[in-house]
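testing teh design pipeline on a random one, pls ignore if ur not involved
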């Protein structure tokens, strides 16, 4: 699994206890919220990162926990389907199929879109096990279309790659008892005449290079077929054929002297993406041999290294990176008695199942009648080889053909099982093939910010965009459907939904509402007939000095004035210095830098309301050092900061026993973005308002009714440069995205509060109904209920 965060936003009751305590009062609060809201809705907190969701074809973008559940469920389904095919279970094909199904859908066929080439005896293109797929054949060196008078080696080998699990006979579907590793892959056979296997008691005879005239090998049917396959840009070429001779007994210069042109062809110098050559290691171990000959021990061959062609990569440097030698193991994982060992080719050698499993049979029946089609149990490195070839096809499909073929080989080697017995490199080379591991991220998965795959990037787990309430669902909605790619430590691409890295705050914060409930008398913020820019401190403190011509006040942990949830709530818990003049003017500077886990915010505020005038004016400037209207970016989203200018009007008056008040603000924020995929953001127009009516009751309590809109972005756009893939040369593919950041809805809150005095305190209740919580037009209305008891002592 990709490394992603699994924990969602914190529970709405996550508040700091000391917010509700001072020296003379204790306040016990209970909160109940239906259609839950998130903590920190009003300010730029430093809460946990938003969990990235993982894109799936069938379930959309889902959490990593859900992904794990679905992966296990689908893996178990495939595990059941291949329970009679130990060869697929041994390479963890069930997990690879599950990875593929999750990313490409339940109808995805492993290997689809990839053509695997084979140089072999030929293929029965009409075989019913190949129905519904593309199978083609070319003939070289006198090879002819097989008629089934001899068992078809090529048909059996090809079936290990591409036999379908469901075949159609007379238009009716039938699920077969076995299928190939990559049953969705197309097959292209380059048929050549093959020499019959010698009788088992025939002594092993390596062919000396001196029997080949320098340069003559390129005239053979094999070379002609090889040349044709490479000319047709086949990505994977299965070579379940061998040339007798243990590679350790041949010297590099001798090989170059006799096979220079063949080596040049194998090397594919100048090819943009080299064809992967998958060779059978050979079945020479334990063969009778002539005493005194190389590797002959007690008259039986000790095949301590792979045979000649499979082992060329150990002697010829330019073949490394796109050549694989495959040895065969049995059901217990032990090397088979017949298989050559990896030996000196260990760095380029891999183990795969190679005995006692089913493959297609095309040939004569027991009575010699030709053309019989069925299945047969097979053994040999000839059949371990197509398991590797098929696995490579699945990998190529999963990574959308964005990895070069050499990277597929590197990945297959790096993810092989090297534990236990497979740690013996002399026998198993790089280890036991593990297709499940090869289709999962290796190491850390990161989003690259540079131009190439190897350029600096940030871990997926560290990437999030925690959207403040003002932006609502705007940016997340604009990015819906947009993919972003991350790369593992081997450069393989894995795709996510970009919107899955974003999270929105749903409605007003429980913390803020609980603070409001515990605040002092909320009837007015006018002190001594002067409009103040900050409310009195609750959990902090203040020092005041009457200067004669005005009041100077130093405040600690104060809340700015203005509409509930307005612009200045971004500086909640501020440290302030305020001068209030006798002319109704109030001026403050404030900072909330790093206090109580909040993002740094500073600014100035000015309030003016002449005496006996029903309307007051408010203006201010805010500077956020690490947030944008409360939105915090991490990882690939870079860093945010912003400054905002705010203006507002305030009025209050009495009608009978009711005190009526209204606040409204508009603002203009100027974002700065840097170091991430968001390259530019326009200025943002914002608004907030509140209307309230408060009435004192005869028993000393009060009721209060409020209609408000928390801070909302009214307009603005963001430009992004999103990595969406890679080229085979390692360049990052990017897509320019322009996103509307304004939310889809408008949150309107209607709330009612009731304060009931007691002998030693006060009961307080708050109920609110929220339309479009989080400014999300699709969000269901939310109801919030708060209750508390304030006890004085």
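output:
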């Amino acid at each position: 699994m990709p490394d992603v965060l699994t924990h969602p936003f914190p529970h709405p009751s996550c508040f700091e206890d000391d917010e509700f305590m001072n020296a003379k009062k204790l306040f016990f609060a209970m909160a109940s919220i239906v259609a839950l809201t998130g903590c920190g809705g009003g300010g730029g907190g430093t809460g946990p990162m938003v969990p990235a969701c993982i894109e799936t074809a069938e379930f959309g973008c889902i959490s990593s926990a859900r992904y794990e559940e679905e992966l296990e469920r689908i893996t178990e389904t495939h595990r059941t389907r291949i329970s009679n095919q130990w060869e697929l279970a041994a390479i963890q094909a069930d997990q690879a199929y599950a990875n593929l199904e999750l990313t490409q859908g339940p109808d995805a066929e492993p290997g689809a879109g990839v053509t695997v080439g084979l140089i072999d005896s030929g293929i029965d293109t009409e075989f019913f096990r190949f129905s519904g797929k593309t199978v083609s054949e070319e003939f070289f060196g006198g090879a002819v279309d097989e008629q089934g008078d001899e068992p078809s080696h090529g048909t059996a080998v090809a079936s290990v790659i591409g036999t379908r699990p469901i075949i159609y006979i007379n238009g009716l579907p039938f699920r077969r008892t076995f299928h190939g590793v990559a049953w969705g892959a197309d097959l292209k056979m380059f048929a050549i005449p093959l020499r019959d296997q010698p009788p088992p008691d025939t002594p092993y005879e390596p062919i000396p290079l001196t029997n080949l005239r320098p340069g003559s090998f390129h005239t053979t049917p094999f070379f002609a077929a090889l040349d044709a396959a490479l000319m047709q840009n086949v990505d994977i070429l299965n070579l379940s054929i061998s040339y007798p001779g243990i590679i350790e007994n041949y010297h590099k210069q001798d090989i170059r002297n006799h096979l220079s042109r063949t080596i040049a062809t194998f090397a594919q110098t100048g090819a943009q993406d080299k064809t992967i050559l998958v060779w059978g290691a050979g079945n020479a171990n334990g063969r009778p041999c002539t005493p005194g000959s190389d590797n002959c021990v007690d008259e039986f061959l000790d095949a301590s290294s792979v045979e000649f062609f499979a082992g060329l990569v150990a002697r010829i440097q330019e073949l490394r990176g796109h050549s694989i030698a495959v040895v065969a193991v049995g059901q217990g994982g032990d090397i088979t008695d017949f298989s050559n060992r990896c030996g000196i080719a260990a760095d380029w050698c891999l183990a795969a199942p190679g005995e006692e499993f089913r493959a297609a049979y095309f040939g004569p029946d027991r009575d010699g009648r030709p053309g019989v089609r069925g299945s047969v149990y097979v053994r040999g490195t000839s059949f371990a080889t197509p398991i590797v070839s098929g696995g490579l096809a699945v990998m190529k499909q999963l990574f959308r053909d964005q990895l070069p073929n050499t990277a597929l080989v590197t990945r297959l080697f790096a993810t092989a099982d090297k534990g236990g017995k497979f740690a013996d490199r002399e026998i198993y080379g790089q280890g036991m093939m593990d297709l499940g591991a090869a289709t999962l991220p290796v190491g850390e998965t990161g989003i690259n910010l540079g131009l190439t795959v190897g350029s600096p990037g940030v871990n997926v787990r560290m990437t999030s965009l925690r959207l403040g309430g003002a932006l609502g669902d705007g940016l997340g909605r604009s990015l819906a459907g947009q993919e972003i790619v991350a790369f593992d430590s081997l450069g393989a691409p894995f795709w996510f939904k970009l919107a899955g890295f974003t999270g929105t705050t749903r409605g007003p914060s429980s913390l803020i509402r609980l603070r409001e409930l515990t605040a002092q008398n909320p009837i007015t913020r006018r002190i001594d007939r002067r409009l103040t820019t900050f409310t009195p401190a609750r959990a902090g403190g203040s020092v005041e000095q009457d200067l004669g011509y005005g009041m100077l006040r130093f405040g600690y942990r104060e809340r700015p004035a203005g509409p509930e949830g307005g612009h200045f709530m971004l500086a909640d818990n501020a440290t302030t210095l305020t001068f209030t003049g006798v002319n109704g003017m109030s001026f403050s500077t404030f900072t909330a830098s790093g206090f109580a886990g909040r993002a740094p915010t500073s600014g100035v505020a000015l309030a003016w309301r002449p005496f006996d005038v029903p309307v007051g004016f408010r203006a201010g400037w805010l500077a956020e050092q690490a947030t944008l209207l409360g939105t915090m970016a991490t990882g690939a989203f870079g860093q945010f900061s912003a400054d905002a200018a705010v203006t507002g009007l305030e009025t209050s008056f009495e009608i009978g026993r009711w005190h009526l008040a209204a606040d409204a603000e508009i603002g203009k924020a100027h974002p700065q973005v840097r170091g991430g995929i968001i390259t530019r953001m326009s200025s943002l127009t914002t608004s907030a308002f509140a209307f309230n009516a408060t009435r004192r009751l005869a028993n000393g309590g009060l009721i209060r009714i409020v209609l408000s809109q928390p801070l909302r972005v009214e307009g603005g756009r963001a430009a992004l440069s999103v990595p969406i893939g890679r080229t085979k040369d390692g360049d990052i593919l990017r897509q320019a995205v322009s996103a509307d950041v304004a939310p889809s809805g408008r949150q309107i809150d209607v709330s009612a509060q009731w304060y009931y005095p007691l002998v030693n305190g006060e009961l307080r209740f708050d109920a609110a109904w929220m339309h479009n919580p989080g400014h999300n037009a699709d969000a269901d209305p939310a109801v919030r209920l708060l209750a508390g008891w304030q006890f004085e002592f």
